[in-house]
From TrEMBL:
The keyword Ligase does not apply. The chain crosses the membrane at residues 6-29. The lineage of its organism: Bacteria, Bacillati, Bacillota, Bacilli, Bacillales. The active site is at residues 233, 278. SMART domains: PDZ (SM00228). Keywords: Hydrolase, Membrane, Protease, Serine protease, Transmembrane, Transmembrane helix. Belongs to the peptidase S16 family. InterPro entries: Lon_proteolytic (IPR008269), Lon_Prtase (IPR027065), PDZ (IPR001478), PDZ_sf (IPR036034), Ribosomal_Su5_D2-typ_SF (IPR020568), Ribsml_uS5_D2-typ_fold_subgr (IPR014721). It comes from the Bacteria. This is endopeptidase La.
Length: 338
């Protein structure tokens, strides 16, 4: 009799678990993803070889069913996100995925530009627009401008690159207004913003990081097969791998080097989401070093979150704060060979 009860209970629980997998909640769940070696997916013609490896780190993201939601509640490095935190209110799954892939394409372009510039190799490109790569918390653009928006004009003045945008804004002072004309989902809109001082530069701005939408032509040629990886957070690590293949010296020095961060065309490394989960992924992959965006010493920086996670999981991996591409290269060049 007891055995029958246990068998029935087992089947009831199994059926409930199965049903819970088909019932989705208005949340997403994120968890540690993978640390993927970059050499197999980035190919520069006649590239030099390295003893070590650079790795991008990812976060796995998916809609939350009941089972996933409860599991995330009990897991330290799984996080639950309201839908509006991940996706715009009127955005479909397909539109969200396309936006993420566009941000990835933009980050690849910026990475190529940074790497080739630092290798003193000429770059030729055709500008097609300027897209928002990042919106800073607490700054005027927050809540008005979104990732993926294409900025067309400032105060009715057209421009061809992010550099020209910065030049126009930099002529203004704190408290002055700027009217941004932008394109979102094929609709043209305007918003008036009051400038604030940017903590990173001390200059007035609206608090957005822009990336040029352009086709880049370089020699030697480079190909990046990012497959279905979306978002801009691999840009910084892309730039290091490309640069390492362009120069004769082995930048890796034999180490397994992971990291994360956006990359702007001038070489600034920017904040990303899920850094704690990426530290966990890098540690599981056996990384020796993890680069984390320092955000100019912000008290809520990715770097400090990465340090806390590394201490919590008791990893031997070194967590290195990075603000620019140059800082990362200088650090790697200073290392002894492993």
């Amino acid at each position: 009799m007891k055995n029958r009860f246990l068998v029935r209970s087992f089947f009831v629980v199994a059926i409930l678990v199965l049903l819970s997998s088909f019932f989705y909640l208005p949340y997403y769940v994120s968890k540690p993803g993978m640390a993927k070696e970059l050499e197999p997916i980035i190919e520069v013609d006649n590239a030099s070889q390295s003893e070590g490896t650079f790795m991008l780190t990812t976060v796995r993201m998916g809609k939350a069913n009941i089972y996933a939601y409860l599991t995330a509640k009990l897991s330290k490095y799984q996080k639950i996100h309201p839908v509006e935190e991940i996706r715009r209110e009127d955005e479909t799954d397909k539109e969200y995925n396309l936006r993420q892939l566009h941000l990835m394409d933009s980050s690849k372009s910026a990475a190529i530009e940074v790497a080739y510039q630092h290798a003193n190799i000429p770059i030729h490109y055709e500008y097609k627009g300027v897209y928002v790569l990042q919106v800073m918390e607490g700054m005027p653009a927050e809540g008005a401008i979104e990732l993926g928006d294409r900025i067309i004009e400032v105060d009715g003045q057209k421009f061809d690159s992010s550099t020209e945008f910065i030049d126009i804004i930099s002529k203004k002072k704190k408290g002055e207004k700027a009217v941004l004309t932008y394109e979102r989902d094929k609709d043209i809109k305007e918003v008036e913003l009051t400038l604030k001082v940017l903590p990173q530069t001390g200059k007035a701005g609206v608090g957005i990081t822009l990336v040029d939408d352009k086709e880049i032509e370089v020699e030697p040629k480079v190909e990046i097969d990012s497959s279905e990886i979306g978002g801009p957070s691999a840009g910084f690590m892309f730039s290091l791998e490309i640069y390492d293949q362009l120069i004769e010296e082995d930048l890796t020095k034999g180490y397994r080097i992971a990291g994360t961060g956006t990359i702007a065309p001038e070489g600034t490394v920017g904040r990303i989401g899920g850094v704690e989960q990426k530290v966990v992924a890098a540690d599981k992959a056996g990384a020796d070093i993890f680069f984390a965006p320092n955000e100019a010493g912000n008290k809520d920086s990715n770097y400090l979150a990465a340090i806390a996670t590394a201490k919590d999981i008791k990893t031997n991996m070194k967590i290195i704060p990075i603000d620019t591409f140059d800082e990362a290269v200088d650090y790697l060049l200073s290392l002894d060979n492993k």
